[in-house]
Batch of 3 targets.
Target 1
Amino acid sequence: MIRLSVNGVARTADPTGAESLLTVLREQLGLPGAKNACEQGECGSCTVIMDGELVCSCLVLAADADGTEVRTVEGVASADAIDAVQEALLDAGGVQCGFCTPGIVVAARHLFATKPDPTEDEIREALAGNICRCTGYGSIVRALAALAAETP
Amino acid sequence: METLLPRDLDEALAAIAADPEATVLAGGTDLMVQVNLQGLRPARVIAIRRIPELREWVGRFIGAAVTHRRLEIGPIKALAEAARTVGSPQIRSAGTIGGNLGTSSPAGDTLPFLAAADAEIVLRSRTGERVLPWDQFITGPKRNARRPDELIVGVRLPEHLPARQAFAKVGVRNAMVIAITSCCVIRDEDGTTRVALGSVGPTPIRARQAEEMISAETRPSEAARAEFARLVAAEVRPITDHRSTAEYRRHASGVIARRLLERVLP
């Protein structure tokens, strides 16, 4: 049995073997936002924030997430409005098939939390671990650069 | 599968003494790939990433659980440069310097720095501590001298570490890439130069002849720099694999070693 905080809510889960945090989020905790794709930390579609750090949840042994604070894409928007990062991606056409989008949103949220006014190079470096097959990244980077420009 | 979460180093050492067959888990960036894709199912895992003693970084001692992210924003120039080339932000906030040593991959990105710096590896078991020079610790590709009942506690750097140091890596893109060749050059004020390379031999390699030649040059001429590159290329021991050819690795090793030398010259 593990206890963890997910999006501010105390949760318990019961990983019985070598499951990853990703598997537990999706299959035990009803949070399918983080996506399962490469399972080797290459694609970033499973990105979550754990204890303030951006991580691939597929590479976190669920049992080792005991006692941590996890934030997933489900915890990004508020109850009545989507987050500014999500809004910016929609406005710039930064979402096509959408599979990578949860990971991109979480990585971008983490970037803006640590660096409110990133340069384009910093945006590209911050997203270096998130693969998108559709957009060619241009519209994603433009979306986040526009958001950075709005930061006073 | 049983996962142990020891709260401090003593608990962790007791756990590994009780079961030397147990698998040690730090950041998970190597181990979990084996679990997810190769069906690895360790009977018992000892998870060490949150052990306070292993997270310490005090002066010359860097704890085994210090992440690449912390190295990247830390004060040691070439080590920070090397850490920044590891994976992606996600990988850097999980992977650790102790994990790089535990895995002992020839392509471990922090290893050329540790070799060039003449770092020592601190190991501890319930019965005592061992401190091994890096080249006695790393014994081959993915092989090292850690005994089953020991944990890698951290890395000890020499008291005097010259400020003139640089690291570079060759790969197909900036992020998420395993080195085709990597190199670290450290040069002292008196000209003493140390150069180490990764991914071009079974372990990190020090190019000793190149070091000796260039250390004698107080202001290396064009000819001396070219000779330095030639000697480095001659001393590496690359193989051809799916990432590159031995010929290209040899050539690129000479080229980046020379560029790094020029970066550390006054």
Note: The two ends of chain B are 55 Å apart (CA to CA).
Target 2
Amino acid sequence: MLRNTDVIELWKESENLMKRVLIVDDASFMRMAIKIILQKSGFEVIGEAENGVVGIKKYQELQPDLVTMDITMPEMTGIEALKEITKFDPKAKVVMVSAMGQQAMVREAIVNGAKSFIVKPFKEDHVVETLNKILEM
Amino acid sequence: MKVEYINPFIEAAQSVIKILCGIDAVLGKVYLRSSPFSVNQVVIMIGVIGRIKGQVCFELSIETAKKIASSMMGGMPVAELDEISKSAVSEMGNMIMGNTTTIFANKSISIDITPPSLLTGEKIEISNKFSTIVVPLELEGVGTISINVAVEEVL
């Protein structure tokens, strides 16, 4: 016999299955690594972008539920792309994933609308937990 | 070049390598190289701007690069240094330099880095504006990564 709470849990899981993610990172290795982690945890990776300019374009096209955004990239940095995406969609859920974890960088990202900040190299569990937390926000 | 400008590179490299490969990177004897100098096989170049500026090159053999890429891909065998393995090794350079900027920031020294470029070939010759400090790191069973730091302080 299913209890109400079980039903809610199941419903939450099925909701999660449909969460659509856009990965923005200039390193093809990093896009692959994040993609594998997310797919294992029931997220759907609907797009990838190799720099900020492509990231913005794909965000507008695909309207994902979540974005993972690198910072150091050619053409346009992740911070610039974050600003543009937030301008386009103030409710956008963007998580920065960067090797540069200094306070000033984190602050700049948060001030410009990032929902969280993951420092590379990261632990798999930490990525999944962070994204799930943001989805509940 | 002050020692305090070299230590953050070593600290960041040791910590990132430990996380990515699960092994200790043991510091070898640091030495100076004058420009130009030849390096072998695989070079990852990352520019530094801000309070210190210049260029950092990570130098390693193809065999070492393949072993690191394999570790980063969860132990998947890497027979050839293909584009995805090159991307993995470049990303290691980016992570080390990103973590270095964080250590500098904690010392109130603000720097930024460029995306990495990876070069492969025999006897690549590098000419730098400044003399280069070479920091060799020995990774047991993997090989040597030499960090070539050619930077100057911006006053």
Note: Chain B touches chain A at residues 16, 19-20, 69, 72-73, 83-85, 87-88, 90-91, 94-99, 101-102, 105-106, 110, 112-115 (CB under 8 Å).
Target 3
Amino acid sequence: MILIVGGGKSSEIAAEEVIRQGAVPLRLVLPEETFSFLPDVETVKGRLLSFTGVQGNFQAEIEIDREVKKFNVGAAVIAVDETPKVSDTDCITLSSILENNYLKCSGTIVILLDAKKPSRASHIVAVEKAIEIKDNNPDCRIYIITPEVRTFGLDELEYCKAQKKGIIFIRAEDIKHSSGKMKVTDSPSGKVLDITPDLVITDEEQEVKNAALWAKAFSINLYEDGHFRLGNVSRGPVTSMRNGVFLCGTASRALLPREMDTSARAAATRAVTASQTPLMLNSAEVDEEKCASCMTCVRVCLFHAPSINEKGKSEICRDLCQSCGLCVNLCPASAISFKGVSRIELRNAVDDVLRCLHE
Amino acid sequence: MYEVGIIGGGAAGLAAALELSRRRVSSVVIDSDKHIGGLSRDLCCKANPVCQRCDACSPVDIRREVRKSPFVTLISSSDVIDASGGPGAYTLSLQSSSGISEIEVKSVIVAIGSPTFDAARDARYRYSDCADVLTSRDLETMMISGNISVPSTGKTPQSLAVIQCVGSRDAKHGAPYCSKVCCKYSLKLVKRVRKELPEIEVTFFYRDWRPSDREYDKLAEYGKEKGVHVVRSRPAEVIIGSRPLVRYATVEDEVREDPFDIVVLAVGLQPPQNSQKLASSLGMECNQYGFFIKKGEGAYAAGCCTGPKDIRESVEEGIAAAGKAAAFLEGLQ
């Protein structure tokens, strides 16, 4: 069974791909989260209390309706997407015109793309929508005001098409908007334009909800901006810093719809493979008699493996340890070692490698 | 008989082979070049000194793993000249210096990648007749060798210009689309160059800043650093002189000609060659430019041959294609 977290588009694609590859998905969404119904996928609403074990053999404790249930899962995919932040202004937003029919708008329409943390897809959505409105009503005048036109890859063709249809793009950073009037400074030329729009559509700031909650439950990290921290490049794409836990969706990286599809399918594929290949690494161990409880190992570990136990000594969680050797080398009391490998042997091995590099 | 035939040994093809080998599915990787690795083979690390996530090391890691795997067979210096059959039984005809041979596979992953734009085709930038005009790939090679010098004089460069969108967003040269990766790699490359040569003056000519991930303010921030100039302009031409002169219009509609020691052209990605023929023989489809469209069962496409993309996305697509192929093979049994 593959645990898939999230209620957005990425989780749908990942679940579909897991089924295609002959594995069973279990989708987990938070009780307050909205999600789309998928007929073939078991979806549970609950909270993840703990996620222990190793790749191929994880145990997930999930609280469903105040009852704790245990599931055995082979791997997990965190497929959480960003959601538009609810704004306090009564502006019409890009996502609301996708849901409602604003095709019949007329007069002067301004699409303002200046949100602080926009979705990567917002520019192409705006361009496509503008073309649709213009096709429906050729008399209307459409402005797309943005500091930068970000139509990536083949989306550029839609941008060219929009320009040919007479949609006006203004690159502007300084936009003043009050009582139905707009003063826009075209940033390349410095010219000031006055626009009186009949309708203003804006893009929304995106936010990741509950990322900290998931990160804690899965023992993975977040970036400062609240997005999931990706695994180091050497671990490959769609990885987190924990083996068997994979990341996709816009909560880990800014993605266009097509990139989101690729990312979710890649994460599902890696998760299916991981669930078939159990992994057991040689964990570092603490000699409690030597341990001075200095917290060095707790602070340096990238994988949250060491913690101080009830005896006041360091203890390394076997499931989380990646055998990186950082704590083994940094422990001031030499209390940490790999089973069967002495500290001196380890240092000699490192010296050998360094010597080879210099020769 | 191999389970999966992978055409192209670049980032996407090798990633697919590695994922299949993790599932103990045998595959054969066919590459036309003498060395496998594709376009991503000769890229330099952009760390300065912390990782910038340029992903240049990622295909190197994958290639090393693939070489060790008993489930992957590598065939280099061979072109796939023809393909026949259908889902479950394809025959690929290979041509190498030793003649023509045939390989039978059950599923195919096309990962033929896409070539970079030949800068000589855009005559305005004088790539073929001025030694100091380089492509971004030439600069990468120079970085790997560890010796950054002005080609015509051999001296350390004092100034450098980067011209974005060469062979992208350019309908005249058959690429009206954006190549998506150039903004990402150019800025990282420039930062790396300035790490090696802190005194160098860099001018970055760009049209729109389209970064990977959420780096929307990165270019504007970088433009505030001492010795960096960010100019929104598409230079008209390079004029050959004692130093190459870049002629461009400023935002105030004023025409300027500035000399630089080195001019770097950030070349875009072109559609793969002869893709229509390969696609039709495998029952696949291409769009009007020659990029593969992902559709159907049995034969899959991954990497830059489905549209311009960065290393990371290519690797992801390779992994996803491997998953699809593995699922297809299970369905056959």
Note: Helices of chain B lie at 11-22, 58-68, 136-145, 182-196, 218-223, 275-281, 311-332.
